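User: Hi! Is it possible to get a structure for several chains at once, not just one? Here's what I have:
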Amino acid sequence: MAFDIKPIDPATRAFFAGVVSGIDLTRRLSDEEVAAIHAGMDRFGMLVFHSQKLDDESQLAFSRQLGPLETATGDIAAPEDRRIGMDLNDISNLDKHGKVVARDDRRRLFGLGNQLWHSDSSFKEVPAKYSLLSARQIPPSGGNTEFADMRAAYDALDEATRREIHDLVCVHSQIFSRGILGFDEFTEAERQKWAPVRQRLVRRHPTTGRLSLYLASHAGGIEGWPVPEARAFLRDLTEHATQRPFVYAHVWKPWDLVMWDNRVTMHRARRYDPNEVRDMRRTTLTNEVSSLEQAP
Ligand code: OGA
Ligand code: MN
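Assistant: Yes, the chains can be modeled jointly so their relative placement is included. Here is the combined structure:
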């Protein structure tokens, strides 16, 4: 079957969330295929590929064909407790022996932060470009992932708000996002490693030229603003940006690979039974520059 990308829901979201057919991600891609994936990402902001039987090695090989990767320095597990290498983020509820972690396990509680709307690695000075999430094993129900189109959200803002936010800079940290859920058991080393970083609130996509709202639960302040006022405003903007017409909810099948552009989307995990196995692994392309260098 020939390579093709179609909107998943042409009637309501013709320009957000595409589904790709006619490609096998387990083998080396041609230059044309790589270019077609980038073009599809520019158009749709996120792509779904079904039935891709990737293991860690083939996921890494495929991801590296799209660009340089970042490492999993945002994960909380100690290196000796990790199940997989630092080139992949472990988005599972498993320990290194493959057992489901306890309900009150620190890694699980930290990971629940993924249920808040966010953009990956916005808490790093150089944040993420694409994330590629491979579903190896999924629970029988729940555990969807939702995605919001931050280009459409920006376009739907009124003129006065666009003017007001044009040059605002936010501070992002995992300490802020986890704090929302009442998780604050960070070591001094973690507090230093995840000290706040600066990111623009509005950024321009380098290829399409479109503007997006760059929001995440990691954003805990706006430079020059009183903290409560900043957080109330960021909450309003997030509510605006995640209205249903801007959101696609992905219902996982085993061996789905979902790829999203963190420059133009937010996403969040949904709940599932903590006794069921959910094994997902994420490779992440680095944005290579800060959002501060992608001014509107
Ligand atoms: C991620 C993430 C959501 C999910 O992989 O970055 O936020 O549903 N995942 O697991
Ligand atoms: Mn994420």
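The two ends are 40 Å apart (CA to CA). The mean pLDDT is 97.

User: Great, thank you!
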